[in-house]
Amino acid sequence: MKRIFLTAGLLSFTIFASAQQGEWTLQECIERALEHNITIKQTELDVELADIDISDAFGNFLPGVNASASNSWNTGLTQNVTTGILQTQTTRNFSAGVTAGLNLFDGLRNIRQYQYAKMAKLASEYSLEQMKDDVALFVANAYLEVLFNKENLKVIQAQHQITLEQLERAEALVEAGSLPKGDLLEIRATSANEVQRMIVAENQIKISLISLAQLLLIKDYENFDIAERDYEVFGSEVLEVPVSEVIEVAEEERYEVKVAEMNRELAEKQLDIAKGAYWPTFGAFFNYNTRESGAGRFIAAGLDPDEPYREIGFVESTQEVVVAPNMATEIGNPLPFFEQLQLNDGISYGVQLNVPIFNGFATRNQVKKNKVNVLRSEYQLEQTKLDLEANVYQAYTDARGALKAYEAALIAREAQVQAFDYATERYNVGMTNAFDFSQASFNLENAESELVRAKYDYIFKLKVLELYFGVPITDLKF
């Protein structure tokens, strides 16, 4: 119960520029609140983020592919890649590569992370449904508040009409000398007091309408109004159900329990993920790379005219010298860009195994932290069930008390009607004074107002109990 009423503190209001006109039914108000409420929209974003997390977790099963390319210039004393001589020069070098990696085993962490993401989305959906129930019930309460204020005004107006009739009669009797002037003044005072109460009641209607319009994010307060109809008091079958059965159903159906249970399961899954760090990881990789340079290259230019042949050895048995052609070379232009890429490419591939041995107790401490979180979530689930049980008992007691108050208000109203009729008869024949008649009128008005208040208080509290009993908010009868 407390959480439902505290939902008001969680609601953010954004004013729409568009004017809303016409009379709104309760169903229309609930539908608009569910569509435009800021808190609900924020919770819907949480569900969208959970979908993205699922996509991220699924992506961990896919290979990672990355491409790189660089083109650099080096200026200064560097080695000439053609001659091997250190010289001051400016050279350009290009390289490119593609690397792919696939995680084959990581202690089942990827699988568990994917399971965790799907569970987290379900928890977000439960939170969204819980928020919708709270907002819808809060709107219903605000709507019934407007109805109560309107009914209360009608009670005062009806009683004031009777007072005006008595005032007209008293004025005639005073002029005829059949009634003391003091009685006329008493009735006039009663009439003025009723007018004052009507003004207060009209202000209460405006204030409650503005509160409801703000809750629905409607700016046009002047034209906003609700559809007036008599909301009947439906049967109280749920009050005939043992409270223990209501609690049992609530624990199965209420979203706050489902959220707490899901949070416990999420904590347990996080513990499994943390334990996966104890296991070795095994993966495969593939790499393709190539390069190109703008430096010149050696090319043959024929026999060296100064020394066409060079000695490369001799035959030991004959002592004959062995010579070979001495080719002259020169530095020419580099090969074409794509030809170099083709000539200089290469690939590498393999598998990699990493075995965790010691990482400063990080893995062990993380596992311990997750064990604490599991215990925390279990305690939170237990506390949620205790709170729910207390809330159901409170709602059950409130609904039964509201029903008794409504039944008592019916009896009290009937008694006051009879008392007022009796007072009217006595006043009409001069057996009682105007003060006693005004007091009877005031008591009847209070009884009528109390009956209206008890009626809508019972309707709302019964709906709260029905909500705990598993009746969807859209199926509640008002």
UniProtKB/TrEMBL annotation:
| Organism annotation | Salinimicrobium sediminis
One GO term describing the cellular component: efflux pump complex
Name this polypeptide is given: Outer membrane protein
Kindly list the places in or outside the cell where this protein is found, as annotated in its UniProt entry: Cell outer membrane
Principal location class: membrane
Q: Which UniProt keywords apply?
A: Cell outer membrane, Membrane, Signal, Transmembrane, Transmembrane beta strand, Transport
Signal peptide (from-to): 1-19
The regions listed as transmembrane in this protein's record are none
* Annotated family: Belongs to the outer membrane factor (OMF) (TC 1.B.17) family.
Q: Which PANTHER family match?
A: OUTER MEMBRANE PROTEIN TOLC
Q: Which domain of life is it from?
A: Bacteria
Q: Give a GO molecular function annotation for the protein.
A: porin activity
